[in-house]
Amino acid sequence: MNIFDSLLEKNTIFTDESKLDMNYIPEKLPHREKELKILSHLFVILLKRPNSISRKILITGKTGIGKTVTLKYFGELLRKAMKSKNTNLKYIHVNCRKQRTSYKTLVMIVRAIDKSVPKRGYSLQDLLDILIDLINGQDTHLLVVLDELNYIIEKDEDLLYYLTRINDDSLKNPQRLSIIGVVRDVSCLNNLDQSTLSTLQRNIIKFNNYDKTQIFDILKYRAGLSFKHNVISNELIEVVSEVVYGKGDIRFGLNLLWKAGKIAEGQGLKEITTECIRQANQDSFFFVPVDLIEDIPEKRLVFLLAIVIMLEKKRKPY
Fold this sequence. Notes:
The chain is α/β, with parallel strands linked by helices. The chain has two domains: about 5-20 and about 210-315, Helicase, Ruva Protein, domain 3, CATH 1.10.8; about 30-205, P-loop containing nucleotide triphosphate hydrolases (Rossmann fold). It has helices at about 5-10, 35-45, 45-50, 65-85, 95-100, 100-115, 125-135, 150-155, 160-165, 195-200, 210-225, 235-245, 250-265, 275-285, 290-295, 300-315; strands at about 55-60, 90-95, 140-145, 175-185, 205. A five-stranded parallel β-sheet has the order 2-3-4-1-5, sandwiched between helices. It contains 16 helices and five strands.
């Protein structure tokens, strides 16, 4: 018997631990109903008159407040609705921080539709022409989400410029491309070409931070999907909610619940205890989002830098 056989035979407190994964798209999104309703109102025209309009939308809000999961949820919702009307929709979600350049981003978009397209050897215009031919040939509407858009426009704005104008020369033809850009703050767009900026600013949806009650509701919902009955109490979920509220990232809370569950399971417990939460929190590495650093006044940043320098020189744990 190998190590996995013994683990498979061991009793678990989870029903499905994947439901706590940050990439899991749940069947409902507590406290993002308003944003989903706004998006639905903007895109319902594609159900009434397919390919009659090209939407350009900007989503703003801090890190870890449900922007990505809401858009992926909405993309699937819209795809199913259009399928019921015998209309095709292709949803492509691009993490611009991973792609970094306009070229790599556009290659990813094109290859998401047709894997046979080579990764190299084209100009941006060539790739755009291929993209247009593909969506026309497949008679589909393409919804592209450019998540963390600021990582691309910091280097160049060519992709955004071309994508927002892809239908300009063919207004009488089907409008097959819609774009949703996601940024933490609209100020990162200030250096864009004025006409591109104007196009994006027509429809801005701001995602507000979750409050403590909303965080509790979300964590309780996901815990209910992931753990067996009575594995974690509401009181402990409230404790986790307090931690998450202080850090501002719901993903940290999901990971904390998962880690606490694994700790309890490893100790042979039938329920998660306060000590499991404490240990999970102690063992968790919290990556400070860039937007939190950007919000710190310059004088405080200098003070923090001085502390870091002092700690590096001391080389002692604190």
